[in-house]
Amino acid sequence: MLPNIVLAEGLRTPFGRLGGALKECSAVELGAYAVRRLLERANIAPREVSEAYFGSAVLASSTLVAARQIIIKAGLPPETPSLTVDRACCSSMSAIGLGFMRTRFQEAEIVLAGGVESCSQTPFLQRQTRWGHKLGDLTIEDPLQFRNPFTGEPLARVTGLVALEHGVSRDEQDDWAFESHRKYFAALDGGLFTDEVAPFKIGKGADAETVAADEAPRRSISRDKLRELPPVYGSPTVTAGNAPGLNDGASAALVMSRDAAAARGLDPLCEIVAYVQLAGSLNSSPYLPGDAIAQALAKAGLGIGDLQLIEINEAFAAMPLVSTKRLANGDAKCLIRLRAITNTKGGAVAIGHPTGASGARLVMTLARGLKQRGGGYGAAAICGGFGQADAIIVKV
């Protein structure tokens, strides 16, 4: 009989703005810090970790074999196997999914899973210069523009067009963005993120500064201000206000069997019930999280009505709007209920989206939200570049 698998503990760093307080911290440094704090909190010795999986979506910012660097810097034995996962924004949810499968089939006892990103330390690229350049202009490329490498189209433009195809307007996206900030601050003021976020100290001695909260959320945001912002990258609907920023941060979680958690006196955040990953057409990212949730529910033998909470990553505000519409499948009452239980503590438009770290953040936020309301089933889903998605069903 296969064991029940749990997310025994999880935490993250504060998420910083592009060029903000965490700009001098490498992705590896952020990830190693999250790992150290996680193991301390769970009272797990580094040698007890069977293997580690860490996601990164912009590998240029974390350089070679990020997972390997993270575990060594965090003090794990060099004999600990590790794997760096690049599934775009899905990466750290994929890392948890890998941990789920490895422990489920008893190939590992304790898996460290998470993700990192330092958009602030992502370098510019200058191609075709290694062997010299004799004449003409040189082009510098910015990987943070996030364009489809096959079509050259900015993801913001594609997202806006797909949103309109699904009947999701600019006003709806602005309203969702406003609510993302409002809900975030309600949750923050209510103490929901106290256990989730590990304050990060920068510098030493008298000059040391502690970053204790996410930098991107804005209390002063208003619907009127959002309405005034112009669309970006040729998008018909996406603006700097209804999309997340480019962020820095790390997330880390411990995946193990329920018995292993009990043996160590841990009260798990949640049980992992099902995990799926999907891929679709190059323009499917806005609705693919909805499809992934539907498949994960089917895998778990559950229906939409069984869900008490949903987390869908706000890669843009359009994503949860389009995905919930896809899930509701034309049922207006179902759509109202789905949106009411989605991202109830705010989402990436407010919190920020350090791409490699967001998937794991969604799962721990979901689990703590379910605990706060007394338990039940929840779903977390995230889209990844150029038509990918992951989804996890959890139970508290």
What is the H/E order? EEHEHEHEHHEEHEHEHEHHHHEE
CATH superfamily of the domain at 155-192 and 272-395: Thiolase/Chalcone synthase
CATH architecture of the domain at 155-192 and 272-395: 3-Layer(aba) Sandwich
DSSP helical segment count: 12
Overall geometry: globular
Ordered list of secondary-structure elements with their pairings:
Layout: E1 5-12, E2 16-17, H1 27-42, E3 51-55, H2 66-73, E4 82-85, H3 91-104, E5 110-118, H4 155-165, H5 170-189, E6 200-202, E7 209-211, H6 223-228, E8 247-257, H7 258-263, E9 270-279, H8 288-300, E10 307-312, H9 318-328, H10 332-340, H11 348-351, H12 358-372, E11 377-384, E12 388-395
Parallel strand pairs: 3-4, 3-5, 10-11
Antiparallel strand pairs: 1-8, 1-9, 2-8, 5-8, 6-7, 9-12, 11-12
How does this structure look, described?
The chain is of the alpha+beta class. The chain has a domain at about 155-190 and about 270-395: 3-Layer(aba) Sandwich (Peroxisomal Thiolase, Chain A, domain 1), CATH 3.40.47. Helix content is about 35%, strand content about 20%. The protein is built from 12 helices and 12 strands. Strands 1, 2, 3, 4, 5, 8, 9, 10, 11 and 12 form a 10-stranded mixed β-sheet that branches. The longest helix has 20 residues, at about 170-190. It is globular and about 55 Å long. The protein starts with a strand and ends with a strand.
